[in-house]
Specification:
The complex is a heterodimer of chains A (130) and B (42).
Chain A lengths: L2 H5 L3 H8 L1 H32 L17 H26 L3 H25 L8
Helix pairs in contact in A: 3-4, 3-5
Chain B lengths: L5 H23 L9 H4 L1
Classes of the chains: A mainly alpha (130), B mainly alpha (42).
């Protein structure tokens, strides 16, 4: 009864079934690497975009089409939300422990704080308010 | 260079506060704390 069914199974499936242990290890390694890369990229971009919220802009690009500081803030909010989702997926794939997550959260917070304070200090003065 | 509105500086500091407070809360909460589960209580 089982023979005709076995013949329909693709060679790849047969190979995977024969080397189930190796395949499992390979899949684990690949998903961990992918998770690590996704998490690292998302973290770096999150830091860069969040710190750019209060960075002073140049006087405007060609035809003055670049977004103003306020517009850029709302754009960054959307990008940050997408990056947080990517980072969460990366964490799930990599299998971070809770201790690693709080450590990284504190580290990212401190890096953004340093960049934000630097932007604040170097910002050009506002007219009238000072 | 164009001036940056003040609220944007505070927006960045709010982000930082969220990350630091979130990290601190995660650090305080013990993983696998069985004392709050129904089995242990009952």
């Amino acid at each position: 009864m089982g023979e005709p069914l076995k013949r329909n199974v693709s060679p790849l499936t047969q190979y995977l079934a024969r080397n189930e242990k190796d395949t499992h290890a390979l899949t684990r390694l690949l998903s961990k690497s992918l998770g690590g890369v996704v998490f690292a990229l998302a973290t770096l971009l999150f830091i860069a975009f969040t710190a750019s919220i209060n960075a002073s802009q140049s006087m405007g690009g060609p035809m003055n089409m670049s977004p103003s500081s306020e517009e850029w803030f709302y754009i960054v909010l959307v990008i940050d939300a997408l990056l947080l989702i990517s980072a969460w997926l990366g964490i799930k794939l990599f299998g971070f422990r809770r201790q690693a997550i709080w450590g990284l959260s504190l580290l990212v917070g401190i890096v953004i704080l340093v960049l934000g304070v630097r932007n604040h200090i170097q910002a050009p003065p506002l007219d009238g308010v000072n | 260079m164009m001036a940056v509105p003040t609220f944007l500086h505070y927006a960045v500091y709010s982000f930082v506060a969220l990350l630091l407070i979130g990290g601190a809360l995660l650090m305080k909460r013990r993983p696998y704390d069985m004392s709050t589960t129904r089995d242990a209580a009952g």
